[in-house]
């Protein structure tokens, strides 16, 4: 095996017989790498669209297979054949399932989630209002807390033994095991009732955001810290780490510049899954802290059997989940340069 084949294993076995073996194979150029990256991103975007279409189709089928009659819910106590026919025509329920399905997908593409059965307003007005803003603030703050805490703890404790590392292990295990609703109650009891440091529930100020964000972000931080630390410690055992230390790099620089980057791929995958599904976690946290977000709207819609609102919230959660994980897949190209050339 030649030196070129050793440094570029993807080129091993390339055919050089046409030149008598004297001319080395051509390395992948800049444009071939760019073409692969564009193709990779395009495939991820197409896959995201397919997943969203399948999710919308599954939601449509689930609504029509679920027990209960939306027309009866809309009519209330005034159940007459004339009123039933009027409501079916108004809501398009008198059409065939295929026509309803096509109309459903067309409206979704246009951002129209239908009308609320109970509130008699567009579902988009229920979702894309202050509720979505409140939930987005909570999710963003919780994600920021999780990432910052995980980065600090993983870099600080990786490769170290001592009482501080053991305390960090215990804290991670504790926060990863506690249910979010119970953790929220503990925070309210200790930090609000006993110490009086933060407001209890409700409100839209920054102080009202701290406790819910900690409740939602610390369990994720505990898991991310464990994944990052394991990745950093494995990278410190590799031969290149010994070489870098021999050349004079400090242990901190080695962990931050090399070890942390090698640990980012599994951590980013886990963060994508967790952040994408965090919208469902806000349902419990917002109920515990009385925040007027998507979680509160979900509870109200389920209690009142408001199917269009429940369907809209479900599709919104799926869209957020798919979008976050698609972005994470694309970020792999930046995290690992080896993925940029094929």
CATH architecture of the largest domain: Orthogonal Bundle
Distance between the termini: 20 Å
Class by helix and strand content? Answer: mainly alpha
Low-confidence stretches: 1-31
Total beta-strand segments: 0
Can you count the helices? 15
Write out the CATH superfamily name of the largest domain: MetI-like
Order of helices and strands: HHHHHHHHHHHHHHH
Query: Could you tell me the strand content as a percent range?
Result: under 5%
Q: Write down the Rg.
A: 27 Å
Biggest beta sheet summary: none
Number of domains: 2
Average predicted confidence as pLDDT: 75
At CATH level 3, the topology of the largest domain is MetI-like fold
Instruction: Please bin the fraction of helical residues.
Output: over 70%
CATH class of the largest domain: Mainly Alpha
Shape descriptor reads: flat
Question: Mind sketching the topology for me?
Answer:
Blueprint: H1 3-7, H2 30-65, H3 70-75, H4 81-91, H5 97-109, H6 123-127, H7 130-157, H8 163-177, H9 180-194, H10 206-236, H11 239-246, H12 251-276, H13 278-289, H14 294-303, H15 307-335
């Amino acid at each position: 095996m030649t030196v070129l084949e050793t440094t570029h294993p993807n080129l091993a076995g390339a055919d050089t017989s046409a030149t008598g073996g004297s001319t080395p194979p051509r390395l992948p150029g800049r444009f071939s790498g760019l073409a692969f990256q564009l193709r990779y991103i395009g495939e991820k975007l197409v896959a995201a669209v397919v997943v969203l279409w399948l999710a919308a189709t599954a939601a449509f089928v689930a609504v029509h297979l679920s027990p209960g009659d939306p027309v009866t819910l809309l009519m209330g106590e005034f159940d007459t054949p004339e009123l039933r026919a009027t409501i079916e025509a108004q809501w398009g329920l008198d059409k065939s399932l295929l026509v309803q399905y096509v109309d459903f997908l067309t409206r979704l593409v246009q951002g129209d989630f239908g009308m609320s059965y109970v509130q008699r307003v567009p579902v988009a007005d229920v979702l894309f209002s202050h509720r979505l803003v409140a939930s987005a603030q909570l999710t963003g703050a919780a994600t920021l807390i999780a990432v910052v805490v995980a980065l600090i703890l993983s870099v600080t404790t990786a490769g170290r033994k001592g009482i501080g590392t053991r305390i960090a292990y215990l804290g991670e295990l504790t926060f990863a095991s506690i249910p979010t609703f119970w953790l929220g109650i503990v925070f309210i009891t200790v930090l609000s009732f006993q110490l009086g440091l933060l407001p209890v529930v409700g409100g839209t100020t920054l102080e009202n955001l701290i406790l819910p964000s900690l409740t939602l972000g610390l369990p994720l931080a505990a898991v991310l810290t464990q994944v990052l630390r394991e990745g950093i410690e494995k990278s410190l055992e590799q031969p290149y780490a010994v070489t870098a230390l021999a050349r004079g790099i400090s242990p901190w620089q080695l962990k931050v510049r090399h070890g942390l980057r090698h640990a980012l791929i599994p951590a980013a995958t886990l963060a994508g899954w967790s952040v994408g599904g965090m919208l469902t976690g806000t349902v419990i946290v917002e109920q515990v802290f009385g925040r007027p977000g998507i979680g509160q709207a979900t509870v109200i819609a389920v209690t009142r059997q408001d199917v269009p609102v429940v369907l809209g919230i479900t599709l919104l959660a799926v869209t957020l989940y798919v979008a976050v994980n698609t972005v994470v897949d694309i970020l792999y190209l930046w995290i690992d340069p080896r993925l940029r050339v094929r």
